[in-house]
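FAQ: What does a multi-protein file look like?

Like this. Sequence, then tokens, then the next protein.
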Amino acid sequence: MENALPPADELRLIDGELAQLDVRRAQLLNRRAWLVHTLQALGTRGAGQAAAHGPAWPAQRAPWVAPASGPSAQNVLLTLGGILLTIAAIAFTVVSWGHLGIGGRSVVLGLVTAAALATPFLLLRRGLTATAEAVAVLGLVLTVLDAYALRRAALPDTDAVRYAAVAAGVLAAVWAGYGLLLRRLRTPLPVAVMAAQLPLPLWALGTDASLSATVWATLATAAFDIAVALLAKPVAIRATAATGAVLTGGWSLLAAGWLSLMADSPALALEPGLLLLAAGGLALGAAWREPSTAPVTAAVAGLAAVAAAGGVVRTMVPASWVVPGYLLCAVALLGVVRIPVPRGVRTGLCVASGLVHAMATVLALPFALLTMARPLSGIGSVWSGAPASASPLPGLSTALPILVVVAAVLWAAPRLLPAVPLPRAATTCAALVLTCCAGFTMTAHPSLPHAGMLALRLLLVTAMLAVTVLADRGAFEAGRARVVPGADSPAAGAADPPRAGGPLALTGLVCAVAGALSVAALSLATRPATFTVLAVLGVVSAVAAAASRGAVLAAVTACAAVVWGAGLVGATAAAAGLPAHQAGLALLAVPATTALLAARLRPHPVALPVELTGAAAGLVALSLAVPHAPTLALALALAGVIAGGTALRADRRPFAGYVAVVLFVAATWIRLAASDVSAPEAYTLPVTVPALAVGLLRRRRDPEASSWTAYGAGLAATLVPSLIAAWGDVHWLRPLLLGLAALALTLAGARLRLQAPMVLGGLTLGLDALHELAPYVVQVVGALPRWLPPAVAGLLLLAVGATYERRLHDARRLRETLSRMR
């Protein structure tokens, strides 16, 4: 460690700093002790002396002591007292009322109510706000009991509902006036707003008015609530009024909507429409005055307007055009959005129109999807001449206009509504999906001939692919412009361009693939249509793959071209009358072609997907040949040739080489099984010979490689099955030949110092010899006395024990000898 100062000077400097720190620490400790003593002294004095000295900290308490807060304890006590007094008043009014005369009743209730309402004036002057609040609540409850007692005593014959309406109005006015006189109380005014919710609806119910009159009454109450919520300043009053507006206005909207749906004529639908418009106007006014809740309230207003107009239109159109009628009203609502309105109101109206569009789409989209999927039901009746979509599908007449209108609105919305914050990518993708669905729904008209239907749907699929390619190229260029610094920059071209297109390209690709599958399934009705459609789809997919710039779109369209080509090959084989197993042989042309094409397109990213798609077609070909064993053997051999040719490529050599070997071996085995060959050597030798050849080549390239790695698998593939067969063979030829082969392997392994041939050959030779000597051993053991085998075994154990060290030394030498072998 290097020092800036000499050690002696630096030591003196450090000692001086430490001394200053000690002095400062002592000063702080003294100050702390004085502060603690002062705070403890202030905590023990009276309240007046503490106030004279100014604000002071509270005296220290033990950490386990948790004193109750004064105001919270006071509130609990006052609340309990108010509840007890209220219960007592109710009990007096309900139970003891009949024991007093009319004069006594009036005097008691009047005095108690007046005292309860007057006491808060005195309490507020003394600053006891919480106590005044509790007594005021008691007074408000007593006024309700006064109203109840008044009807029981003086007005017993009046209608209960009408009396409740009048009493609620009077109480609301009294409580509101009381709250305005005592503005420091927080309860009377919110309670007055709550009471004001009842008079008009109760009066409408008491006069046996119609449902529409009751709705008008609740709407008037909602208007009052909205006015209070917008004009009042206290938060409690505004919250109470807003809650009342939501409840009364929501019930009014639901009731008016139900009346609109139940109307049978335009005249009957007019009044529910006016109710809905009035409710929507109230919501729109609230949205205009309150920006914080404008999107929600404006959306409610927009839905009410659509329901009002749609309810009238519903009574003038057929039943199948009810949903399109509401949808057109929602489209008209979008025209209002172009008027200069606050942003929150515009957003809410757009949300309302969007909800109607979404609900209409949900109702229509299943019919379109069913139209696209319906041809799949005709796959089981190929070339029968009757298309699966010949019969009309119910609901198409309603679904088609809905899809067309919604798609048109989605396409036009970003241009006609520039001020509306729409998610452009999601809107465009949804418009493309609905356009595709509308096109397929339009071509499903029963009067359209089968050829015309196929032609129109092929054009639609081609258009979807064209849109996909254009969108993909645009996304590719935009991504490249973001990634590549510039054409003249030295770093230009250093970064790879994006490999996937934008959301519009992916959406168009999905639509194109779904449409192509539907068209291909529909074309199976007739033979010419099948060939024409598959050929057109293959050409269009290949052109799209060649024109694509993104790797994803190019790979998918190229694989689609391979699939359509495979379908064309299968259709040709079926038209030629070939059985399934022979059609599988013809289908092997697809993997052969894709292997050649992938070798040609090796640097391109679509090479591997095309090759894998061809391999999948090869698996289908092999599955078709399974019922006929000779043809399956030939198909496996041809597939092995294709895999072997692919293995010539350096990038495919490891995997394709193994696949080729497996295919060739499987072909040989299946051919032998088809020829009723049961000798195991016929199955194992075709595996052993190539395996030994491969092992020999490896040992030449790597002399240090183990013999087990080079020859173990190949030798075991023949020796083990032959040994098992020899043990069950009653003839002498196989054991003899196996013994000679095992002897030759053992001698060769010992001569060449190879561990695997010597060990495998020796074990096989020993087991084979044991098999040959087993019958004689059994005969000799049966002829000897029963005590002789145990005696021989005991002597053998004694001999081994006596020469244990020597045998152990021999075993070690044998192990060392084997370990020196490869």
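And here is the next protein:
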Amino acid sequence: MAAAASVLTAQPTPTASGPALDLFHQLLAVIEWLTDHAWLLLLVLVGAAAITELVLRRMAMAASQQRMALDLTPARHFDPSPEQILRRGIELARASTSMPWWAPRRSKAVRIRLRADGTSPLLYRIEGPAGAERLLTTTPFGPHVKVTKAAALPNKQRRHEVRAEFILRGNPVALLRDVPLEPDPLQPLVDAVADLRAQLGDLAEVCVDLQRAPKTVLKARRWQLLDAARRNERTETARLTHWMHRDHQRLQDSWLFQFTQVLSSDGRRSREGGRMVMTPPQVRVDPAKAFGKLAEDSHLVRVQILVRCASDTAGRAEAHLARIQAGLAVFGGSARFAMRGWRIGPWRLGADRWPHRRQFDRRWAAGQCQPPAANWVQLTELLGLLKPPTVHCRLPLLAVDLPSFVPEDPSLLLQGWYQGADGRRRLVATPTAETLFEVGVGKAGGGKTERALVQSVGYAHAGGGFLFVDPHRDSWQRAAPYLAHDHLMGRIARIDLKATGPQSLISSWNLIGMDHGRPRHEVVEDTVDAFASAFGWEDANAPRAIAIFTEALTALTAANELACQAGRPDDQATVFQVRSLLTDAGFRTCALAAVRERLGEESAAWWQSVFPTFPADSFNILINPLARLAANPVTRAFLGQGQGIYNIRAAMDRRMIVWVCTAGNGPTDKLLVALLARDLLRAGRSRTDVPEDQRVLFRVYLDELITLTGTAADSIASMFEDLRKFKVQIHGMTQLLARLPVSVRQSLLQNASTLSTTTGSRGAVSAITEEWGDQPSATHVAHLDRYDHYAQFTVGGRRVGPVLVHGPVLEDVFADLYQPGNRRALEAAADKTAGARPLSELTARAAAQQQRIQAFLLKHTPSASPLTKSTKEFQ
């Protein structure tokens, strides 16, 4: 029994710790197994992560297919306020979440695409979820920005491409620099791509992706910032304590401290030697300071900036990327945008290299946003990128905006030299069909007339026809050597009214001639209107003058019709016979007897019953201006020929080049200019008898409008209002808009498709700069160099400019056309085409014209010969 008891006593007694120990051993075994098979665990985790990424990527690609794009085209005066831009940014942030519930976060983004390829200064496009179309289409910018559905972008492959992604560097919670809206923050980016050339395959694109701040990610980011701030504070406190102890020890070891101890009276340590060193208290971390711009949830977004530049020419893509990088530096402050990657010598490991390139291309193509952890910004930091270019942005002028001039191309009208951002100069032009009315303003010698001359010479060699009215005659001397070519001589006619002697060659014009086949009533109406416009006659203030003049011209045109029927166009009456008809009873009796059957009952009754009741002085209002015209040998010779040669309507239809050199500024000269202007207006309006598609373009150059509008204000104003539809284009030049009649000035500014100004006083050019919103200002224009112009053009139905162009000079542009040796031949041919004869000869013929007419009327009746139509016009 004792042995059994000892055996039982020797056996171990079960304890409560047995199961826990077994569990502990099992856990150790699992850990040992996992340690031995760590590769398997890693493989499972990697596989799960890969499958998850693959699923998310496919889901993101599926969600990214449901996207749309809008092009935003700002008006020239677009000038939004910061509040409007912020509201637009809020809309973009909200639009980024308009995706299906299952869409991954990376696909919930809105993209702002800035693109330039040499065909447009800067394309501003918004790309976002299709479900946010209504939100993206309606902008707070109102009618100042045109929103249209975007077309697909061309995907042309270039030989050289570079890529870059920009991330925030520096203080991750600091704000970017507060960039003002004037000048436009986009200006550096616009300047960076201003020299892109489409013919070289240049392309530059900047994509700014915005993503609304995820709450969970934001909380995690704040926890990281707060933890980092606490660690930094503890590190700073420890460093400060360490240096305080070291400073105390250095003080005790110094000779000054020991010398003080020796000199102490009681031989004891001074109180300073026993000073206790206190550890500085730890400063509590301020969350608001630690979070910085992440402290507020509102208007907080994540941003991703991707840049791609390409070209078919080596080196250009890299150069444009460097300029874009410099352009983004304008936002830099304590935080800045920097290119992601590392630079090792001449190489950069970034978005262009493995492994980032494939991810970059996927995000670029699908519009997905996966920004770095530091890319958090407030919308107020990106105001400059949230709107299209404003009025404060200087856009480059590309060939698509203003085409380059091509010699002998009738569809282009030369305008001047333009210097691009890359320093290259090119001759720019506007479409001829769209250059309806041009206005040039500026001081004398500034280059207005020279620009018009270069333009007209180029248009002539391209086959176009025009009328150049030159009050000074100098323009003919300048242009003649460049027009002296065989293929042009047959189309040029010179009407020179500046006679210097009896042998000066003068052309002829019969105001009431019937040899051109026009209806008689139209000739009467046009002549009466010309005189009425010149003298301000109206039914209210001069009814008698209008009535008498109308009846007199009716009788004389009937006589002229009779002369043309008889084959005697040289025996036609002129406007000078109006005076004889009213004051010479013998001539009046002869003329009325010959045309009685042609007058009609009313006109015949008027001469029988009404005319005799007028007193003699009733005709002075007509006789006085006609007497002044007759007293001047030049006007008497020009207007006093029975068969005139000048026919501006025929010149329009035949693309002729007509140069009219007016005489001067006297009353008679102004009256003659008024008659010419009214006839030009009449000829343009008369083209209504030609189908619109068959009307050929004809240009009119009016130099020194102040002189020409003296008595022709209404006619010239009507030209700028009416002749567009008849394909007659006007180019007017003046030194001062303020000196023009109000009607002319208003018509010029209202209808001008090209508005330009050279240098001048601020008061003189302010009328033009005000039309441009003082951009440029009058002060800026007043300091232009000679021949420099600010001009606004019309191309493709929209306004381009004001653009600084250098006025062309004949010697620079058309040096190869200079033919001074052919000038005499040109002038002879031009005078022959105009039917010019010596002044003495025409004066003698004009003096004897009435006798010839009276002799003809005595010998002929209206039925003497069949109607013949003279063909002696401009050949």
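Q: Is there any per-entry metadata?
A: Some entries carry free-text notes. For the entry above: Confidence is low (pLDDT under 50) at residues 1-16, 269-274, 862-875.
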